[in-house]
Inverse folding.
């Protein structure tokens, strides 16, 4: 006797239920100080990393005036900060 399933479709013979993962309160681990400290240090590093580029924009006109330089001379300084 011939099976009447459409071409390209497979017949599902048995469907087993997916295993259920249960986590009890005893299985969970406590969050320690290092897990709080790592993202905090990363955030601080990101904030400090951009500080030098922002501060040179404020300080460059004063340095140019004190050293009697044209502000265009600081183009190399700005370009070096981006590279």
């Amino acid at each position: 006797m011939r099976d009447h399933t459409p071409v390209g479709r497979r017949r599902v013979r048995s469907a087993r239920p997916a295993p259920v993962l249960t986590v009890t309160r005893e299985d969970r681990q406590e969050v320690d100080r290092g897990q709080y400290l790592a993202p905090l240090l990363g955030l601080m590093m990101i904030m400090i990393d951009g500080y030098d580029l922002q501060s040179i924009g404020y300080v460059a006109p004063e340095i140019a005036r004190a050293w009697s330089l044209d502000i265009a001379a600081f183009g190399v300084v700005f370009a070096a900060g981006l590279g």
